[in-house]
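User: I'm putting together notes for a lab meeting next week and I want to include a structural view of one of the chains we've been expressing. I don't have a solved structure, so I'd like a prediction I can at least talk through. The sequence is below, exactly as it appears in our construct file.
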Amino acid sequence: MTLKHRLGVVDQKVRLHGDDEKHEQTDAWSNRDLIPLPPERRTWGWFNFFGFWAIASLNLANWQTPSTFLVTEATGLSVPQAILIIVVSSILIALFSTTIAWVGLKWHIGFTVQNRYSWGMRGSFIPLLQRILLNFIWNAVQCWNGGRLVAVCLTAIWPSYARMPNTFSPSFPATTDQFVGFVVFWFLSTPFLWLRPEKFKIPFLVVCIWCGVGMLAWMIWAVVTAKGVGPLWNAGQTIPSGSPWGTSWLIMAGINQTIGGLAAGITNGSDFSRYARSRRHYIHGTIASCVITNVVVSLVGLVTTASGQKIYGEIYWNPPDLLMRMMDNGNGSSRSRAGVFFLAAGFAFTAMFENICGNAVSGGIDLAGLFPRYINIRRGAIITFVAAWIVQPWQLINRATTFIAVLSSFSVFLAPIIGIMSCDYFLLRKRRVRLSHLYRTEDSSYYFTKGFNWRAIPSWLCGWAPTIGGLVVTVRGDVDPPRSLVQLYNMAFLIGFFISAVVFYILNLIFPVPDMDQIDPTDLYGTFTEREARRAGVSPLDDAPMQVATHGRRSTEHVVIYGEKGV
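Assistant: Thanks for the context. Below is the predicted structure for the 567-residue chain, given as structure tokens.
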């Protein structure tokens, strides 16, 4: 057997194979996880979407959100002002998320494919690579944060764990107990990578009940034990006298920061909305969870922290720190350690599934868009998870604080992408997409010029150019930065969204793209139910005249499905 033949055998074993009878063709632009989802794979009801957004709320970051606005040296807002920021941000997040997710609800395609009609078939790799980079890094960081919760659980079981000697050298930016927690969290997470998004309902249910009940029980215990809340709850506005910013600008900055923290989740909303059984399931579940759960968790975190202040005389915003104090670093009673274990395990499981759903699975979908012949959601999720060892989060968390700040501000680059997506779909294409043209390059309306829609690139650049200066001076920590740069940065999400949308719209008016509102006359992928097909204005595949069969795949007299390029 020649080397070429052996490589061919290996290639055939590694290559993905879809069911052609179900239109799951696998080529340079398509595989089973990229095609428009058929009805039998759309299994998400309202609770799935409630759980999807709940795991973004039932976590350490959201618990600590009020601390960002109350006790920092730069802000010092009052409790009502902090809650106002959280409420307004939650409403805006729900609105932006629904806007971006709408294409998934109607045409059942995800972010990976969605960008092809805006950026071009090859141009879509630009937003795709940005999200892949973010998925790799945030997955690693979340694994490290989850490891801290695992360390609390291990201390609750074996108190001596907290006194474990550090076997690493002084130059290593982590201790042995921290690293062991990371390793345990990583290995416990891996089995969930084999779970397909269609089967996420049970984990969502477990997360919502376990972590939700745990948070409420923790708050009740803290309030009862402290016989009320501490001074933090009644803290008034304490903006430093020398601060150049008034209350309005600080609130605006808080709203921008909160929305920006979930910009990545907003961007790929269609990756998960395409699994919806109906539109109302997505809308009801998203609004209920995004607005209500997000606000409630922040309030619970604030009340618990304020009560903890009264009990221990200190403010513990970080739950692992407060949990360790509650059980006296493992030296407390067995009852206190059992309660701490229950709470820490609930937080850890939530962090685990939030990371898998929001980073690993999303990374898998994005990687599938780069290498459809070889990578599906499961393989991509595994690659994203393994990359945590290459990223080395212990270096990022404990050393590169500036780098983490840059990542947290990455919405500067994502908001313009969201603006382009919204403008193109709702204003220019009038919610009409030609699905068959998203999976080929030959004679495709979305191939544009050499695979790039040049209009998207300057629109994206114009969206983040006004705010990048503010990002630089803020992350760098300049003592007296130019006021105008910081003001622009404090509105970065809205500025990036609207500037890119307007520029993209104007460029399309000056240099129009022909036939932007065309659709396939036939449901070529078996995507729609009868009602959906009527609403979209397409005919079922079985009603289409058949002409030829090419390579075992069907085409119709209306639309040529398979071109020569990229197949």
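A couple of points you could mention at the meeting. Confidence is low (pLDDT under 50) at residues 545-567. The domain at 3-556 is CATH 1.10.4160.10 (Hydantoin permease).

User: Perfect, that's what I needed.
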